[in-house]
Write a structure and sequence with these properties.
Blueprint: H1 2-24, H2 30-37, H3 40-43, H4 61-74, H5 78-87, H6 89-95, H7 107-134, E1 142-151, H8 157-165, E2 186-189, E3 195-206, E4 212-219, H9 228-231, E5 237-240, H10 247-255, E6 259-262, H11 273-283, H12 288-291, H13 302-324
Helix pairs in contact: 2-13, 4-5, 4-13, 5-6, 7-13
């Protein structure tokens, strides 16, 4: 009799939760559409080995991944993410928490990022893109390659003083790793006035809907064209700016079966101003992809910054997918049973 009463109470609570979530999280909410587009259970299945079965019952990897996705979706800190998961009903629904279920504190997110690691996250990034490709969101014809800055620290005066006190003539990329908190970061420059300390985010953007196809992260002093080998697609026309106008980039693009639509430098004898003007106009709408991404490093070290960039790229692509994919393709599974 006691068990029957408990089961009846649980059913009532579950029904109440569904009614509350249905009232607060409408069918066209971005998180409902996202949950309909991506089968997160299948997506995070490879992360099963990250789950610890020791001690108390842990949080499922699907829930953990969704919480990290929310963090990068909204650009939250760990403490802000803790609050959002605890207080935001739409986030609770998306992550799979009930109305009264306890949520983790901020320390959980750092541990989970470490357990997932950059290599596994890169695989998940490719898996997400494979899902979006099935929805026709990648064109595989035109690709835009460029790099953007990621700043680790804006001023290094204290580090410079320590370097000079230690006998260095000045602080530069050859000795800076001995004096800074992030030894992987370096100075980079796009021009005489655009100089920063940190990293570069190199991305290949598919020019059908502006989704990020591939990415790599390097210290800021690595020349842009050096990463073409890592992010070049395997077909189509590749649009690049003047910093990629060199033989090495052209050879790499051709070796991947692509055509280089590079804007040539003024001193290039093969420069065609009319053609370069057309190429500039074609790629211009997609330069916004780089401006919309975070310019500051959340973490220290190239590995952790690469993790940040991959998760930001996943969130960026999924945000666009939610806006692009018609409601009719997701409405059938938009609501949970």
């Amino acid at each position: 009799m006691i068990h029957q009463t408990a089961d009846k109470t649980d059913k009532i609570l579950m029904q109440t939760e569904r009614e509350v979530f249905d009232a607060i999280v409408p069918s066209d909410h971005p998180f409902r559409r996202l949950d309909a587009i991506v089968d997160f259970t299948e997506l995070v299945a490879p992360l099963a080995e990250c789950f610890s079965h020791l001690g108390t019952v842990g949080i499922p990897m699907e829930t953990g991944f969704k919480m990290l996705l929310i963090q990068f979706w909204e650009d939250y800190s760990d403490r802000q993410n803790e609050k959002a998961v605890r207080e935001n009903m739409a986030v609770r629904w998306f992550c799979g928490f009930g109305l009264t279920q306890q949520t983790p504190d901020h320390s959980y997110f750092g541990k989970l990022r470490k357990r997932i690691g950059t290599k596994r996250l890169a695989d998940l990034f490719n898996a997400v893109n494979a899902i979006l490709a099935k929805h026709g969101l990648f064109g595989n014809m035109f690709t835009f390659i460029d790099a953007s800055s990621i700043i680790t620290k804006t001023a290094l005066w204290e580090e410079r003083d320590r370097a000079i006190k230690a006998g260095e003539e000045k602080l530069n990329n050859l000795n800076v790793k001995k004096y800074v908190a992030d030894p992987d970061a370096r100075w980079g420059a796009k021009s005489k006035t655009n100089i920063w300390f940190g990293y570069k985010r190199h991305e290949a953007v598919d020019m059908r809907f502006g989704l990020i196809r591939k990415l790599a992260v390097t210290p800021a002093n690595v020349l842009d064209y050096k990463t073409v080998k890592n992010i070049c697609p395997n077909q189509g026309m590749v649009f690049m700016d003047k910093l990629f106008d060199c033989k090495e980039a052209d050879v790499r693009v051709a070796g991947n079966g692509c055509f280089a639509a590079t804007i040539r430098k003024r001193n290039n004898p093969g420069k065609n101003k009319d053609l370069d003007r057309w190429r500039s106009g074609i790629r211009m709408p997609f330069e916004g992809t780089f401006s919309k991404q975070r310019k500051r490093a959340k973490y220290r070290g190239q590995t952790k910054v690469t993790f940040q960039c991959f998760f930001e790229a996943i969130a960026y692509n999924l945000k666009k997918a939610v806006r692009i994919i018609p409601m009719t393709t997701t409405s059938a599974s938009a609501c949970r049973s």
